[in-house]
C-alpha cells in the first residue's frame, strides 16, 4: 500500500483514489500512459466536439468504480466476496482497455484484430505492465489476463469486471454523457454501488435498487441511438475504414508511399509485435493521414483530406437497403462502388439492451430479495420487459455528395430523387 | 443567414447556435477544423486528465458568448452598439485563436512566435478562411484582423472581443473548470451577460452585476494558481521547451535526424508559410517526439521519452532562487545545467487580476449606474480592491530526480538535503 | 411593459424573466403570494426532505417556460401562432395552479373539491388577481379562465398551457427532480423548447426532437413510480385524508373542538367563498393538526399526532387485495376497519404515459417533418410504443403497526404472517 | 448499530447514511421532526423563492459531513482522534440546531432568547430526544450538551462540531447555494473532507488543501453579502421583528386579541417550558399573523398583512446614518418613528471571514505540513490575508413607501429627494 493515498481529479467521479502501489505503478507505465493518446469515443469528437476524452480517463474511472464496489463489500464483510481477489480485480479493471488501438473499432474491423487479444498480450508479454504485475506475484499477469478472457477461476471477479452491470459500462455511460454534453447518460450510480451484492458466483442487485437499474438501462438505450450510432460519427468511421482499406491495398500492390512510417508495414502485413503495437496511437494515425493528403494516389489523398478536414460523406436513411442495385447505378454513373458508397445498418452492431430469457446467463441482471431468492430483472420490471423486445433496424447510405453532384447528368431520375433532393 | 439555425451540442453552453452562413462556412474551413487538433490547455492534460478539450471547442464557445451579448444588445436596441458591426465581431470572436500552434505557449517561447500574428496572417493571406470572409466583403478580412490587432476603428468591438470581461476569458474559465473537473471556475455568466451594456466606446456592467463580476475575478484568481500554474503542468511545459530547444540546436548543427518531417525545417529556420504553419498540430508534434525516442542523440531521446511517457521532472518550491549557485553545483556533479535543471517563477507570467488605478484603461472594468455615471470597479468593490494588490512570488526548481540520484555521491550535503530529502 | 426587465433567481431555470407589468402585478397579488405557503408536492417532503418547494416556484417556472416558447415562436415569426394571444397564454400559465388548496390532492378527495374550479373562481370573482386582469381588458379574466377550462376559442393556447408536452409538466418534472434530489427527471428541455412549433391548432415537435421527447416521457415514467407514488408519501396522504374525514365527521356530529378556527366550518359545510378559500394554506392546516393533538377525541388526536410527528402507517405490498376479508379480520381483532387499515392501488391514479391510438387526440404528441406531415409519436418511436402498453397494478395495504401489535393475540395466524413478520 | 444502513436521499450530499440506531431514533423524535417546520434561512424565501428548505435537511447534512470526517479518521487510524467519542460527536452534530425557533434570528432578537440554550434544554430536560440519549448512557445528554456549550472535555470534538471549518458551515453554504440557486457557495468539500486531520486538540487541514479552504472562505464571503444580508430579506426580517414587538406590547398592555393561541402568552411573558417551546414552529407563527390581519389594532394588522402578502418595506442605501434627524423628520410628518422607519447596518452583524492574528484561537484555521508544524492560514495564503482586513459598512434605511407617499406634502425637500426620487 502507498504511505499516503494518491488522487486524480476526475470530472465524473470527482476523485479517483489510489491506495495500492501496484495500481500507482501500473498507471505510470508507458503502455498505460499511451491510453492518453487514444480517444474513448473514436471519431465521435467530429459530431460532439466535447468528446475528446481519452481511454486513460475511462480506465481510471472503471478502476475507481471497481474499487468502490469492493470497498463496500469489504466494509460490510459479505462472505460471498473472495477478499484475496481484490488486487486481481482492480488490476483487471484498470487494464481492461489497454489493448485498444487508435480509432479502435475501425482499425479492428479493417485489420481483423481484437483489442482483448492485445490487452492480454501486453499483460503477458514483455512490457512495463507485465513487469509491475510480475514483481508482486509471478502468477498475477496470467490471473489478470484470465479475467479479461473471462476464464478466471473466480467467476465473480469476471462478472464484476465484465458483467451486464459492470464498472466498464457504468463509467462509459456517465463519462460519455459528461463530455459530449448530452444529458441522457446520467443515472444514480451511487445507489447502484450501494445496492450491488456478491451472491454466489455473481454480482446481483438488491430489489430496492430495481428503479436505479431500470434507469441505467434506459440511459444505455438512449446513449446508443443518440451518441454511439449517430450517423455523422458512423460516416467518419466509414471514411476511416476506407482509408485503412485503401492504404493496405496500395501497400500490398507495392505502391511507394511518399510518407511512410514504421510500424505501418507490420500493421499491413499483420506481423505487429506488442512493442510495435504500442507505438500506434491516434497522433500517429492522424499524422500519417495528414501527410497522405499529398499522396499521388487520388483515392487515398481524397479520403484522408475528408477525414482531416471533416468533409465527411453525406447520408440518407432508407427503409431497406437495395445494395446491389445501387452499386450498379454507381458503376453506371462512373463512380466507384467500392469507395464512393457505403451501407450501414447499425442494428447489426452489438447492442445489448437486456433481453429476458428462461435461463439467466452471465449477461442477465439478477435482483436479490435480501434472503435467498434471486430473480431475473425482466421478470420484475415492466419497463425492462417492454423495451427488451425492441429491434430497431435503421439503414443508412453514405456517399460523397460532391462526387455525386459532379456526375448528376449521368444519374437516373430515381437516384437523383433519392440522393440529391434530400438533405441532412 | 442560414435557412434554419444550426446547433452544436456543447457541455458548457448547452448549445452553440449558428444563424449566419458565413459563420457556418468559417467553421468548416480546414484552418478552423485544425483547431480540433490543438488542445485548449496545452500540457495540462498531464495533470488533469479530463483537460483534453480543444481550441475548437473554446473558439465555438467564445463565438457563442459574443453572439448572446450582441443579441441582448439588439433586443434592447441600445444606441451605443453599432449594429452593422455584428458580423465583424462574430467573425473576430470565432477566429481569435485560429493562429495557435501546437502546445502554443511552449512553441511560441521556443521559437519567438506570436499566435496573434499567425491569426492575422491566416485571415489575410490565402486560406479557406480568407476566401470565406472575402466573398462577403473584400474589406472584411482586414476588418477582422484589425479587431484581433486591437486597432479597429470601432473600439467597442475590440473591447467586446478582448476586454477585461471578454467572451474569451468567460469561456475559458468555465470550459477549463468543466473539463478539468475543478469547481473553482464557475461564476454566474447568465447574470453577467444580462447586465453588460454598450456605453460609449466600452462594454460596461450595470452596478447590480458587481457581485457576479467579483465572483468572476475570484474564479480567475483560483484558476490561475490551481490549474494554469500547476507545477506538474509547468514541469511538462519545461520538458517540452527543452525538446524544441534541443531539436533546433541539433538541426542547426547539421545533425541528421532518423525521423524528420516537413515542415520542421521551416519551423527551425523561421521561414514558415501559413500553408506550412497550419500543418503543425499536436498530433504532428507528438508523433515526432515518439519517433525521436529512438534518436541517437541521448539528450533529445531522453526528453522525448519523458514527455511521451509522462516521466516528468520533479520540483521543489523555494523561497528564492539562487540560480547561479545551483548551476555551478549541477556542473560540478557532472549534470548539464542547461537541460537538467530549470527554474520557474510563475508570478513573472502574465497574470492580470484586476488592479485599480486612477485612470481607467481598456483593461479596467467599469460599473455603470444606469444613468450617466461609470465607476471603475475597485472603487466600489472591497474585495476587488483588496485582492488587486496581491503579488505572489512562487519559485520552483525542476529537475530529473533519476539523474540526480545517479550522481548522489557527488552532491554536496546542502544540495542533497534540499533535493533528495523532500518529495512531492 | 416594464421599463426594465425584472428577474427571479430560480434554481431550475436559472432566471425567470418578467417583462410585462401585468405579470409583475399578478405575482404581487395576495392570492399568488399565498402559493408560497402551499407545497408543490404535498406530503412528499416526509419522504424526500428536500421536497419543500412551493407552488409559487412551480408557477413561476411554468410561466417562464411558456414565455420562452412564445418568444421562440415570435423570433421566428411562425404564422400559425396567434401573436396577440401572448398575454392570455402567459397569464394562464402563471395562474393555472392558483386554486390549489393545502395538501391539494388529499383535501380535494376529502371534500369533493376541484382546484381548477377554484382557479377559475379566483380569476373571475373579486380578487386582487381579477382586478389586475380586468384593468388591462375587461374580457381578460374570462379569457384566462377559458384557457384553464380548455374551452378557449384558440385551441393552440390551450394546447400550449395544458397539452401532453406542456410547460406545466416540463417544469414539475425538472423541479421535483431538483428538489427531491433524484436524477430521473432531467431531460433536455432546451432542445425541446427549440424544436416545438405551432402547427395549425396544435403545438407539435420537429422530428429531430424525437429522442428528447422520448427522454422526457421516460423521465415522467420514472418520476411517477419513484417519487409521486412512493408508498411513504401515499401513507402520509392517507393519514391526512383520515384526519379530514374524522374532523368533518365530528363537526357534523356537533362535537365541540377545543381548537377551532374559521373558515374550517365553511370548509366542512361546503360553503367556502373565495375570500375564505385563500385563507386556507398549509401553515393553517398544520397548525390546526398540531393543536388537535390535544383534542379529547382519541382518533382525531392520534391521527394528527401521527401526521405532525411523522409516525406514519406501515405498509405491505400484495399481489391482490382482499379488502372485505381484511376488514372482517380487523373488526374481529377489535380494530377499526374505517381508520386502522387503508388500501391503495396507485395504478388507479391518473397516470398518463403516452398511449398511442388511431386518432391523435389533444393528449397525443405529434412529430412534424418540417413540411406538411405530422405523425403521432408512437408510430415513429419504438420505445414509446413499447412502454405505452405498460399497465402496472401495485396494491398496498397501510396500517398502524403499533395498534396491530397491541392486539397481536387476537389476530389469526394468516394475518400475523402477512403483517407482523414482514418489514419495510 | 442498525442491521442494515438506512439512507435519506439528499440533493446536496446525494445520500445521508445512518448506521447507528441512536441516530435513527433521534431523527424520529418529535422534537427533531419539528425542524421540518422551521426554515433554514428564515425569511430568505421571500427573496429567493427556492430557499424553502428546512433545518431538518440542514441538520441531516451536518450529521452526514461529521460522519464522513470521522469515518475518514477511523479508516486511517489517526491517533489524535479519540475513537470512543464518535457517538457524542454525531449526536451533537445532528442536534446542534434543535433549539431553533420559528424565524429564529428575529424571534431571538425580539424576545432575548438564544437557540443554543433551547438546544441544551431540549437535550437535558424531559423530551423524546433526552430519552433516546439516556437509554444509551445516562451521561450522554450532558456530554452532548457540553459539546453544544463548547465546554466538553474533549476540545477536538467541539472543534469538529463548531470550529472555523466545521460541518455546520460547510453544509449550510452548499445547501443554501443549492436551494437559492446562486452559484457562489460551491467549493470542493470532498477535497476538504479528505484533507482534514485530527492534530492534538484541533481539526487542522493538510497544506495541500489550502486552495480548497481559500475557496471555501471566498464562498462564505460571497454568500454573506449576496444571500444572507440581502436587503429584501433584511426588510422582511425587520417587519417580522416589529410584529413580535407590537404583539408583545399589546399583550403587556392587556389588549384583547381576537385570535390568540397558547403558548403565545408564555412566549410574551418569558415563561416558556420546553414542551411549550417545541409547539412553536413557522406554521404556528404564520397562522397567527394571517389571523392578526383582522385585528382591530391597525399597526399590528398592517405589519402582519405586509409580511403575509409580501408587501415589504422599501429601502435606500446611504453612506452614513443620521437616525436622530430622520426620526425627527418622521415624527414631524406624522409618521411613527418607532415602526415606520428602520435602520440596518449589516456589518454590525456577526461576520467572521477569517482574520489573522498572532495567537491562533479556536476560530482560526490551521494548516498542517504533514509532520510537526502547523501554521495559521493567513500566514500562508495571500488571498486570505488580503480579504481578512475587509470591513464593509453598508447602511440601509427601510420604510413603508405607501405611508411615506401619503404624507408627501408634509415632507421636507431633502427627505423627498432622498426617499421618493429613488427606487429599488
UniProtKB/TrEMBL annotation, chains A, B, C, D:
Q: Which CDD domains match?
A: HDc
| Pfam families (alphabetical) | HD, HD_assoc_2
Q: Which PROSITE patterns match?
A: HD
Q: Gene3D superfamilies given for it?
A: Hypothetical protein af1432 (1.10.3210.10)
Q: Which residues are in the HD domain?
A: 55-173
PANTHER family according to UniProt: DEOXYNUCLEOSIDE TRIPHOSPHATE TRIPHOSPHOHYDROLASE (PTHR11373), DEOXYNUCLEOSIDE TRIPHOSPHATE TRIPHOSPHOHYDROLASE SAMHD1 (PTHR11373:SF4)
Query: What name does UniProt use for this protein?
Result: HD domain-containing protein
Organism phylogeny: Bacteria, Bacillati, Bacillota, Bacilli, Bacillales
